[in-house]
Amino acid sequence: MQAFDYKTPASVADAKAAAASGAKLLAGGQSLLAAMKLGLQAPDTLASLSAVPGLAGISVSGGVVKIGAMTTHAAVAASAEVKKAIPALAELAGNIGDRQVRNRGTIGGSLANADPAACYPAAVLGLGATIHTDSRSIPADSFFKGIYETALADGEIITAVNFPIPEKAGWQKFKQPASRFSIVGVFVSKGPQGVRVAVTGAGASVFRASALEAKLAANWSAGALQGATVSAEGLNNDLHGSAEYRAALVPVLAARAVG
């Protein structure tokens, strides 16, 4: 790995100033550091968000679970508040990567990176969450733009994510056994924003399966998805599975998530 400078800004304003001067922001580092080791990223300066106060923590109020951007996957998985309010979200967090990844990786870092096979984007889109930054609030439907692409502007910092508490929710993942990323992952929910079905791993970015949402809106049951199909057009086609294979998995996993 190449040499680099390391900064520890003490506030969001300091972190933004560091980013404006060319520093790469570092959350848990589970994606960025791996990319640096492979030579895919070569920043001259890293600015860690670990010392910035107020970016970690979980609270529940007014029908919303608020999770700070620097909250680790392990903390979400272990949270009694999350387990009670949105059990599927705690389950998702508890099955990301391995213990090292869960204890270092953060929800904000995962969303900013927007890996097409990451788990958290499915929960954010599937629950109709809102991503809060240092300057604005972004609804999930407007946040994910494409492969490793989000609505974040240069230097914009995620501070928290608000998840509306659903009436029902479920998560199913068919994982790649080595990386534990999703070959296909499906998050379903029925709540304040209606029925939502979000799919990760299958395409270049997380997306909603509107045809499955319509079926579940009419009848929230696994049986409602019997015989349902998803188009393979535009889906990923690689050594882990063809586009057709992934398309076939989506309704199967959605039905399992419904229960």
Please specify the SSE layout and strand pairing.
Layout: E1 5-7, H1 12-20, E2 24-26, H2 32-37, E3 45-48, E4 58-61, E5 64-68, H3 73-78, H4 80-85, H5 87-94, H6 99-104, H7 107-113, H8 120-127, E6 130-133, E7 137-139, H9 140-143, E8 144-146, E9 149-150, E10 158-164, E11 168-175, E12 182-191, E13 194-200, E14 207-208, H10 210-218, H11 243-258
Parallel strand pairs: 1-3, 2-3
Antiparallel strand pairs: 4-5, 5-10, 6-7, 6-10, 8-9, 11-12, 12-13, 13-14
Brief rundown of the structure:
With 259 residues, this protein is an alpha+beta fold.
List descriptors:
259 residues; single chain; Uridine Diphospho-n-acetylenolpyruvylglucosamine Reductase, domain 3; 14 strands; alpha+beta; Enolase-like, domain 1; 2 domains; 5-stranded antiparallel β-sheet
Describe this structure in words.
- It is a single chain.
- The chain has 259 residues and is an alpha+beta fold.
- The protein has two domains: 139 residues, 2-Layer Sandwich (Uridine Diphospho-n-acetylenolpyruvylglucosamine Reductase, domain 3), CATH 3.30.465; 91 residues, CO dehydrogenase flavoprotein, C-terminal domain (Enolase-like, domain 1, 2-Layer Sandwich).
- The chain is built from eleven helices and 14 strands.
- The protein has a five-stranded antiparallel beta sheet with strand order 4-5-10-6-7. The chain has a four-stranded antiparallel beta sheet with strand order 11-12-13-14, with helices on both faces. A three-stranded parallel beta sheet has the order 1-3-2, with helices on one face.
- A hairpin with a 2-residue loop joins strand 4 and strand 5.
- The protein is globular and about 55 Å long.
